[in-house]
Structures are given as C-alpha cells and as structure tokens.
Amino acid sequence: MQNQIIPSEIIENRIFIIRGKKVMFDRDLARLYRIPTKVLKQSVNRNIERFPEDFMFQLTREETSIWRSQIVTSRSEARGLRINPYAFTEQGVAMLSSVLKSKQAVRANIQIMRTFTKIREMIVSNKALREKIEALERKYDGQFRVVFEAIHRLIEKDRIEPTKIIGFRDRKRK
User: Fold this and answer.
1) 3-class DSSP state for residue 144?
2) Rounded to an integer, what distance in angstroms lies between the CA atom of residue 66 and that of residue 70?
3) pLDDT tens for each residue of 43-102
4) Strand positions, DSSP E, 19-69
5) Could you tell me if 139 and 123 are in contact, meaning their C-beta atoms sit under 8 angstroms apart?
6) Among candidates 11, 3, 6, which has minimal Cα distance to 118?
7) Cβ neighbours around 12 below 10 Å, total
8) What are the distances in angstroms from CA 44 to CA 66, 99, 108, 123, 137?
9) What's the whole-model pTM score?
C-alpha cells in the first residue's frame, strides 16, 4: 500500500455512525495525530468558522451516554470525558488538515481520507453487487419457476399414484 503510517483497520474501527453520518471523534483523531485532545479542540475552537454543523458537531449528553455504553470505556477514559466529544464528518476531517500543521497530522489526515474513500467505494460496490443479483433474480425467476413447478407436479403425482414395488417380495413378510 501507499506508505501507510496507520493501518486502515485502525482507522476503520474508529469511524462511527452518529446522526446518520460517518464520523470520527476528537479523541481518536488526536491520538492518530499524536497530539492531546485539548490541543485539537483548541485549534478547532480558534477556527470554528471552518467547521459548520455538517463538518463537525458536539454530541449531546444522551448521545455521549449511548456511545460510552457501546464502546465500554474504562473508568479512566470515562473520567477524561467531562465535555461531550466533537464528532467530525469526512469534510471536517479534511478541514482539520488546514488547522493542524504538523507533519504527523498531515500524514495521518491523508491516511484517514484514503480510508473514508475506501469505505465509500466498498459501499458503492456492495450496492452494485446487490443490484446485479436482484437483476439476475428478476431475469431468471420465470425460468426457475418452471423448474420448481415441474418438481412440485412430480411430487404431487407420486402422492396420487402409489408407486409399484419393483423386485422380489418375501412372501413370509407382509
């Protein structure tokens, strides 16, 4: 692969769906960028005009509670979540590259963007595959229906007409 500094599986496992959008949380991004979450949030807050609601949003208390219960955070991690986390969409992650200037942040951002693209391509290819299978089912459904109807007729015929026994019969047994 193209000089990966972060395995895409690690990034894929840090992408969640919140409010119907694929997002990454501030603390996960900070770890990937190798900076404290506090520094990431400060950089975002200093440039908040670059992060409209469709780029980044803050989770509500209820969303944070649900998210925590799903990922089973340790006590130390839970104590570190005094403020509801920020969730960054793909566009928000891209915008972070203009706010965070370190080489590590740029390299991590490139890998994250590649992972988002890979996920999008997988979704599209799965959809295309499903559509092809559905088209084949529609196309061949009539032909298979004829086969199944013939099988059903044969089964019904056997039920109606008892089959004659072929071979020798032991007269002692009845």
Assistant:
1) helix
2) 6
3) 999 999 999 999 999 998 888 887 776 665 545 454 455 788 999 999 999 888 888 878
4) 21-25, 56-58
5) no
6) 11
7) 13
8) 24, 7, 17, 30, 50
9) 0.61
Residue 164, Ramachandran bin (φ over 0: left; ψ between -120 and 50: alpha; else beta): beta
Q: CA 48, CA 53: separation in Å to the nearest integer?
A: 10
Instruction: Express the helix, strand and coil content of the chain in percent, nearest 5 each.
Output: 65, 10, 30
Tokens found for residue 23 = 């997002």
Cα separations in angstroms, 164 against 53, 156, 160: 78, 16, 13
pLDDT, tens digit (0-9, with 9 covering 90-100), for 89-110: 999 998 888 888 788 888 888 8
Spans of all domains in the chain = 8-128
Look at the domain 8-128 and name its fold.
Mlu1-box Binding Protein; DNA-binding Domain (3.10.260)
Tokens of 174: 């009845």
